[in-house]
Design a protein that fits this description.
The protein has 254 residues and is an alpha/beta fold. Helices cover 44% and strands 13% of the residues. The protein has 11 helices and 7 strands. It is globular, with a radius of gyration of 18 Å.
Length: 254
């Protein structure tokens, strides 16, 4: 079972969009797919549950809260999953309580609990984990639980400087907590191939030996419609250029 985390400490780089669209493609290929929404904003939850996160009976907050108890056998992780309107695609929904729970979870050193839960998870072929835009308890939990890490990147000089720190942080977590974690690649999002600055930044990163993927994702107003209608691109417009870019990225990863 592939357990992929999409992570960047910078906000606005498209983590949630990439998670949900890659997961939707996986599910459309017949893979039983689970999305885990660890971002308190809950955008992945809203995207995949039709803008009605209240449809989830249980959440990732319920899971983490259960790890604070004294039960020797907490409920299986699968019991926290909610069906989405899309075949083969489930989500463990976000929860506004995550921020309040974080201090308790850190103080009781529960950062391994997600990994332990996913080690026991059965019935899924692929797991995609959406993370908050910070290196905090939840993103560290995700990096420890995953075996692949995909890093979204927008072609901005400030983002470039932050990328080096991010790569160091991921490698440190790999060395200290999760030797199975592989940096799958840096995916350039909202790429403008006719603009000089993005092309130069990407070329320089590749020259440095950074793992920048050949597959890029362009910008499109169609994605805004995808968000508004709560339909990943593979369902909204299968033949659209951006959809095909996501399919190409998915195929390259798998």
């Amino acid at each position: 079972m592939i357990r992929r985390v999409v992570f960047n400490q910078k906000g606005g780089v498209g983590k949630t969009t990439i998670v949900c669209n890659l997961a939707a493609i996986a599910a459309s290929r017949g893979l039983r797919t689970l999305v885990i929404d660890l971002d308190t904003q809950g955008n992945a939850t809203q995207y995949l549950l039709g803008g009605k996160p209240g449809k989830a009976d249980r959440t990732v907050g319920d899971f983490f809260e259960s790890t604070l108890g004294f039960s020797l056998q907490p409920p299986p992780f699968v019991t926290y999953a909610t069906n989405t309107p899309f075949d083969n695609l489930d989500i463990v929904a976000s929860d506004t309580r995550l921020e309040d729970l974080q201090v308790k979870l850190e103080s009781k050193q529960k950062v391994q609990k997600l990994r332990q839960a996913l080690d026991k998870l059965r019935g899924y072929d692929a797991v995609f984990i959406d993370t908050p835009p910070a290196l905090n308890f939840y993103s560290r939990s995700a990096l420890i639980a995953a075996n692949r890490c995909l890093i979204p990147f927008d072609c901005d000089e400030f983002a470039r400087q932050a990328l080096y720190t991010l790569l160091d942080n991921v490698q440190e977590i790999r060395a200290d907590h999760n030797e199975e974690l592989e940096i799958e690649g840096i995916v350039v999002n909202q790429f403008q191939n006719r603009a000089k600055l993005p092309a130069r930044v990407v070329a320089e990163l590749r020259e440095e030996g950074q793992p920048v993927l050949e597959q890029t994702l362009s910008s499109s107003v169609r994605m805004k419609e995808s968000h508004e209608r709560h339909l990943p691109m593979i369902h909204l417009d299968p033949g659209h250029r951006l959809t095909l870019e996501y399919v190409t990225l998915f195929d390259a990863l798998d």
